[in-house]
């Protein structure tokens, strides 16, 4: 269990190649689609949240990425370095890769709910689609237009309208995801995205060459 305050609006700025958080907070509507944000204090059990993982469970190096679907630097990472990381280390059994969402705003939360809607097997494929089209759906207009674009991405992954609506209207899941994010952000001291935890050590966003060197050092190469 965790006890926390759901806070209206996180202040966000872009600096030094990362999105920065002033505190682990998110604008959370009662209804994840169109309801009004509401500050409240509650206890939420986050044990039902599934960790999204790629690679061998017993890989010698574990990398946890903290990322927001509305963070352009996270999109850049997934469009470039991540693909090389997957080829060089995840697919070869050297790295266990764990992806954890950070919620700057309700739009990132909705994107997460879409990505998780089809389950772990399709999560990373949907994540790729969401990041690839980030510039389009985040600038689609108001909330209705943005969620409409996210629904289109879900349909591309094979989700039907009933599945999408059920996932997006699940307010309990939305609150659980926010609580889970806040637990993780506090535990690991997450202040910016993307941030990586490599075998327990926090690493800021950097070039793939530097990241590769760090991983190889962890592997003893």
UniProtKB/TrEMBL annotation:
Q: Using the record's annotation, list all stretches that form the Thioredoxin domain.
A: 22-220
Q: Which InterPro entries match?
A: Thioredoxin-like_fold, Thioredoxin-like_sf, Thioredoxin_domain
Cite the SUPFAM superfamilies for this sequence: Thioredoxin-like
Q: Could you list the residue ranges that cross the membrane?
A: none
The similarity comment for this entry is: Belongs to the thioredoxin family. DsbA subfamily.
The function of this protein is: May be required for disulfide bond formation in some proteins.
Q: What is this protein called?
A: DsbA family protein
Query: What organism is listed for this UniProt entry?
Result: Ruegeria sediminis
| Taxonomic lineage from the root | Bacteria, Pseudomonadati, Pseudomonadota, Alphaproteobacteria, Rhodobacterales
């Amino acid at each position: 269990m965790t006890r926390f305050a759901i806070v209206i609006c996180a202040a966000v700025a872009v600096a030094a190649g990362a999105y920065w958080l002033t505190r682990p907070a998110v604008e959370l509507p009662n209804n994840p689609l169109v309801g009004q944000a509401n500050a409240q204090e509650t206890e939420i059990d986050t044990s039902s949240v599934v960790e999204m993982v790629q690679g061998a469970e017993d890989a010698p190096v574990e990398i946890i990425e903290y990322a927001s679907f509305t963070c352009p630097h996270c999109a850049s990472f997934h469009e470039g370095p991540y693909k090389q990381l997957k080829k060089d280390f995840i697919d070869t059994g050297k790295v266990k890769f764990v992806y954890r969402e950070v919620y700057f705003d309700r739009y990132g939360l909705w994107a997460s709910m879409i990505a998780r809607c089809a389950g772990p097997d399709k999560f990373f494929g949907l994540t790729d689609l969401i990041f690839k089209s980030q510039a389009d759906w985040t600038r689609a207009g108001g909330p209705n237009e943005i969620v409409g674009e996210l629904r289109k991405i879900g349909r591309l992954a094979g989700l039907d309208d009933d599945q999408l609506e059920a996932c997006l209207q699940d307010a309990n899941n939305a609150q659980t995801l926010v609580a889970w994010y806040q637990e993780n952000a506090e535990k690991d001291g997450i202040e910016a995205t993307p941030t990586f935890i490599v075998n327990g050590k926090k690493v800021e966003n950097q070039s793939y060459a530097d990241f590769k060197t760090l991983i190889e050092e962890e592997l003893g190469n």
